[in-house]
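To whoever is on call:

I kicked off a structure prediction for a single chain this morning and the downstream step that reads the tokens threw a length-mismatch warning. I double-checked the sequence; it's 367 residues and nothing unusual in it as far as I can see. Pasting both halves so you can look.
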Amino acid sequence: MKSRILSNILKMMTFPFLGAVGGPFLYAKREKKPLKFSQDGKFRILHMSDIHLVHELMEEEQPIEVTKQQVADTLNLIEECIRRTNPDLVVFTGDNVSSNYELITYDYAAKTIRRLYQAVGKFNLPLAITFGNHDGERNTHKEFQMRIFMEYENFVGVYNEENVYGCGNYSLPIISSDGKKTAFNLWMFDSNDYLDGIKGTGYDCVHSDQLDWYKRKSDKLKEENGGEPVYSFAFQHICVPDVHSCFKEVEEGTEGAVQCNDGKFYVLPENATGELNESPSPPMTRYDGEFDAFKAQGDVIAMFCGHDHVNDFIVEKDGIKLCQTICGGFMTYGWRRGGRLIEIDENNPKEFYTETICVEEREEVDI
């Protein structure tokens, strides 16, 4: 099944539906300004994930004053991450809105998304997004949410580049500083939510038709680049299961060891950086071989994911760096919150620079 409800939503643009979201959409099709390396050959990305923003009236289990403060803290954190990193592009990789709340409505979702892009809009920055497993819960469909993001004049995403599964599968070329070629590329994947769309069945994966689109586009970029792959990053919410093979198995009780889904205990290998604080939660039942597709194409040099809120590490497998970014919102579990700066040098893209931007540490909250 492709993007499951897009065609239905487009057919539903009737007065009752528009009334439910507070009037007509503000979206108007615009020419997108291309992403481009600066004159010094650098391009900076702020990666944030698991923002889990809510509308205050969605949360009924705590005083509204507490929720308002958490919302304000989250928006302030986004702005502080931007100030600290001075990025050329902001990327949110899913669980952008906590739509698993029972009281969420289309109107609440739309107002929440507008708060997100307005925080970025204060700095007049391009914004790209992917979706996470929580974004489409309670029937606040991802296609509807994408439409709201598209209101933002500097939004660079689309529903899908081709008719493939999920929503938000697209690529973003970064033009060389001299404007003559695509010097780098960013892949945005919908890692989807749950197997067969049913919560409780395990996490889904990037599907084979999404990977077929990726391979076609990757081949085209390679052809345009004189037969050489265009080095790229992949951004998505849920990590690939291949990450588990990067860890070092240890005995139970070893300092810093984390018990993973297979019941065994692991630490990061010596050549890794950062912290492994919880078991990664990739797809465990269905997996269509995304990592192998990247290896075969030879263009993706790093993947950046969220989903596991307290993990903050970089491991490498077969020449591809697997990077985990901490959570960015205060309406969800975690004790360190912030994002990740990524800086690419067009003259040496494989040796990119990245660092964690931890804006605030707080005692773990039971959510």
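Update from on-call: the warning came from a stale cache, not from the record. Cleared it. Sanity check on the structure: Residues 7-24 have pLDDT under 50 and may be disordered.
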